[in-house]
Design goal:
The complex is a heterodimer of chains A (288) and B (291). Chain A is an all-alpha fold and 288 residues long. Chain A is 75% helix and 1% strand. A two-stranded antiparallel sheet of chain A has the order 1-2. In chain A, helix 1 packs across helix 12, helix 4 crosses helix 6 and helix 6 runs antiparallel to helix 9. Chain A is globular, with a radius of gyration of 23 Å. By secondary structure, chain B is an alpha/beta fold. Chain B has two domains: 149 residues, D-Maltodextrin-Binding Protein, domain 2 (3-Layer(aba) Sandwich); 138 residues, D-Maltodextrin-Binding Protein, domain 2 (3-Layer(aba) Sandwich). In chain B, 39% of the residues lie in helices and 20% in strands. In chain B, the strands form two sheets. In chain B, strands 1, 2, 3, 4, 6, 7, 8, 9 and 11 form a nine-stranded mixed sheet that branches. In chain B, helix 3 packs parallel to helix 4. The chains are: A mainly alpha (288), B alpha/beta (291). Chains A and B meet through strand 1, helix 5 and helix 11 of A and helix 3, helix 4, strand 7 and helix 7 of B.
Chain lengths: 288, 291
């Protein structure tokens, strides 16, 4: 009796483990089924490298290059802002702050992760947009930079919390050895602790970027959504996620436009898959 | 043993709840689902509230998402009434027919679209040709239409908005549905009418279009003329009702079949004098005396 129960429970747990993978595979096939259907109408080159996104034109144009670059510009901007800030924050929490402050800061950073993206978008629209506009004398505050700033805020908690874990995981003996050799605290941090934690830090950066590139609501509210090829970070851009979100409601099921939005989803899936893969590689390097 | 009992108890309750819910949903023909145009959400809500006060046994749920969302829901049979600010396209009508819905159209109100600029902008009037030029990217500086030497920042609603489609077909393409004109890539696509108001009120070089009900003192509406020589007409309730203002569109209800029961009485209410009075209080334009 007991054996049977054990057996059943074991299998249920196994099934749950596989369910996650199964869902990912199902989602991928669902995306691929409708996304690849687009290429009956449009060639892959025209889709990936076309510079005009005009789904309502006759005939429609489905060039996602402006959207792809828009997503990349916003993401890169967010990474440039978030990585130094996040790293400084993680080092401070992990190495410098006294114990009581560490607890407070960690809780605070994790709370930041819990803010819904629409709230960040709303704050960005009413507070950040006008600041960016006036600071750079722009015609509008809805630019790639505004989106990047808001997204940096969303990436920082993910980054800090994983970075801090890997910094705390550096064996105490490394630090003590370095200090015993006469290195200062700062020298110990950047010559010993950061290199020792580097694989975790790279993984944290990748996961943070993965979160940013998939973000939708805040970028839709903040980047202006003009589908031009971005020339500067101070111009409006349209990201892939915002395009899918803004246009899905209007498309007729089974139309070319509908398939094109799924194809964008497929591209996004590919990018996040690649980023997660890199993060995983970085994490496994540590174990060797 | 105890946990087992508890589990089966939970299961039983869950099953009961589900079946109850199903039965309830099937029997209740007093509830209406309305979905569609963001322009019409508040209007639909106002009608629904008043109607539910008069008919307390009914329940009406109104949600937005865009005209396209409403039409898609109608095609999929997940709403009773689709609110749209544009007519259904032939392709959509065909899809609805394929799914066994014979779409019926009801004109329920009129929405005038105001073209708005920053209050400090000296431009007072624009022709359809000029508007088309601005939004297709042929006109890029305000001095080409009688304003200051300043680059134009054109703002539009995004593509899921019926307002976007109406503006594209009636202003950019001047009524020719299949015209080659397109919104220029430089045009900002904003997710809501409120976002357009916010931008226009902050940016001296901005121009955008919004429903008449959204016009506030923070922005300035310009007079519009269909012909190049005029007459230029400012948007208002009166000019929209007497049809002299050229940028006005019908707001529509679509049902999947000949309306019956609660759906029918709701539509009758909307078209009644009281229903049309609500249209006026919500800053839209009533249908008037059956033109």
């Amino acid at each position: 009796m007991r054996k049977i129960r054990e057996f059943v429970i074991e299998k249920i747990i196994l099934l749950n483990g596989f369910a996650c993978i199964l869902f990912v595979i199902l989602i991928f096939f669902f995306l691929a089924k409708d996304g690849l259907a687009l290429f009956r109408f449009v060639t892959i080159q025209d889709f990936l490298f076309g510079t005009l996104w005009n789904p309502l034109a006759e005939p429609p144009q489905f060039g996602i290059l402006p959207l792809l670059l828009g997503s990349l510009v916003v993401t890169l901007g967010a990474a440039i802002i978030a990585v130094p800030l996040g790293m400084a924050c993680a080092v401070f929490i992990g190495e410098i702050a006294p114990r009581w402050m560490r607890e407070v800061l960690k809780a605070g950073v994790e709370l930041l992760a819990a803010i819904p993206s629409i709230v960040i978008g709303f704050i960005g629209m009413t507070m950040l947009g006008p600041v960016v506009k006036n600071l750079f004398h722009l015609p509008t505050g809805l630019t790639a930079l505004t989106g990047s700033l808001a997204l940096a805020f969303m990436a920082i908690p993910t980054m800090v919390s994983i970075m801090e874990d890997s910094i705390s995981a550096v064996p105490r003996s490394y630090k003590e050895g370095s200090l015993a050799l006469g290195a200062t605290h700062w020298q110990t941090i950047y010559r010993v602790i950061i290199p020792a934690a580097s694989s975790g830090i790279v993984a944290a950066i990748m996961l943070g970027i993965g979160r940013v590139i998939g973000e939708t609501m805040a970028v839709m509210m903040l980047t202006g959504n003009a589908s031009v090829l971005p020339k500067t970070i101070l111009a409006p851009v349209r990201t892939m996620t915002a395009t899918v979100a803004a246009e899905m409601g209007e498309t007729v099921r089974g139309s070319e436009h509908y398939f094109a939005l799924f194809a964008i989803g497929l591209v996004l899936f590919g990018i996040t898959f690649f980023i997660n893969f890199l993060a995983d590689m970085a994490r496994h390097r540590k174990k060797k | 043993m105890k946990t087992k009992l508890l589990l089966s108890g939970i299961l039983a309750v869950a099953v009961l709840f589900c079946t109850n819910f199903l039965v309830f949903a099937k029997e209740n023909e007093n509830s209406i689902q309305i979905k569609g145009s963001d322009t019409m959400v508040n209007l639909g809500q106002a009608w629904a509230e008043e109607f539910m006060i008069e008919n307390p046994q009914t329940s009406i749920a109104v949600t937005g998402g865009g005209s396209g969302t409403g039409v898609a829901a109608l095609i999929n049979g997940t709403c009773d009434i689709a609110e749209t600010s544009r007519e259904m396209k032939p392709r959509e009508l065909e899809l609805a027919r394929k799914n066994g819905h014979d779409a019926q159209e009801f004109k329920v109100a009129i929405d005038a679209l105001a073209v708005v600029v920053h209050p400090s902008n000296p431009v007072k009037q624009l022709t359809f040709d000029q508007l088309s030029g601005i939004f297709t990217g042929k006109i890029t500086n305000w001095n080409e239409v009688g304003g200051n030497d300043q680059k134009i920042l054109a703002l539009s609603r995004d593509r899921n908005s019926g307002t976007h489609v109406y503006f594209l077909e009636h202003i950019l393409r001047k009524g020719n549905d299949k015209g080659p004109e397109q919104f220029a890539p430089e045009v900002l696509m904003l997710p809501s009418s409120q976002a357009i108001i916010d931008e226009v009120s902050q940016s001296q070089s901005a121009i955008g279009y919004i429903g008449l009900g959204y016009v506030s003192p923070a922005v300035k509406a310009v007079a519009v003329s269909k012909a190049n020589e005029g007459p230029f007409v400012l948007p208002s309730l009166d000019t929209a009702m007497n049809k002299t203002y050229p940028v006005a569109r019908p707001l529509l209800f679509y049902t999947g079949r000949e309306p019956q029961g609660t759906v029918k009485s709701f539509i009758d209410f909307v078209l009644s004098k009281k229903g049309q009075e609500i249209v006026r209080t919500m800053d839209f334009v009533p249908l008037g005396d059956k033109a």
